Amino acid sequence: MARVGLTADRLAEAAADLADEVGFDNVTVSALARGFGVKDASLYSHVKNVRDLRTRVAVRAAADFGDRLAAAIAGRAGRDALVAFADAYRDFALAHPGRYSATRMPIPPEIVADSPGHLRMMESTAATLRGYPLAEPDLTDAVRLLRSTFHGFVAIEADEGFQHPRDVAASWERVVAALDVALRHWPSRVG
User: Fold this and answer.
1) Residue 81 near residue 123, CB atoms below 8 Å
2) Contact 122, 85 (CB under 8 A)
3) Can you tell me the distance from the alpha carbon of 91 to that of 155, in angstroms, rounded to the nearest whole number?
4) pLDDT tier, 1 (very low <50, low <70, confident <90, very high otherwise)
């Protein structure tokens, strides 16, 4: 019999909170069960295994992240959209490190296709880039540039890796401004 109050959704939300506290890689069924004061077996009627639990966290985190990105860029275009997107990205990653890590978890394409949050994240990225003169394959390259730049910056910032006295927020603003210039003046394809 399922323990009263335990549902897959409640477990996923608690696991997302746990991920922000201890890191996404440290989220286990055992750790979650301890948090609820139950035995591991009590959770297996709601989640199949740790992979299923983490996938549920990834889907939940993507919904939150996607909502924040979409809200940030609503009604904006070009540089304004890029700045809003970048700031929402950084704010989410720093405020919710475990959830952010979950959004980067490789999950099967059929789950991504059924995940409104993952789709909203992709659409928000595409909407941000609509204000720039990009077509495929340059659009894919631009998405990869944004993701790698934003992820690299927030990963270093989260690890307190920027030791220079220059204000990190000021550097962030300059990085985003440089991306805007790069996107507006995208290089021609060679060959």
Assistant:
1) no
2) no
3) 12
4) very low
pTM of this structure = 0.93
> Which residues fall within 8 angstroms of residue 179, CB to CB, at 6 or more apart?
82, 86, 145, 146, 149
DSSP state of 137: T
Determine whether 129 is exposed, middle or buried from the number of CB atoms within 10 Å of its CB (0-12, 13-18, 19+). Answer: buried
* Domain formed by 8-184, architecture: Orthogonal Bundle (1.10)
Comparing C-alpha atoms, which of 111, 135, 130 is closest to residue 62? 111
Instruction: From 130, 132, 120, 67, select the one nearest 96 (Cα to Cα).
Output: 67
- Give the pair of three-digit tokens for residue 126: 């595409």
Q: Enumerate residues 6+ apart whose C-beta is below 8 A from 172.
A: 86, 90, 153
Determine the average pLDDT of the residues in 85-106: 98
CB distance 114 to 73 below 8 Å: no
CA distance between the termini of the chain: 65
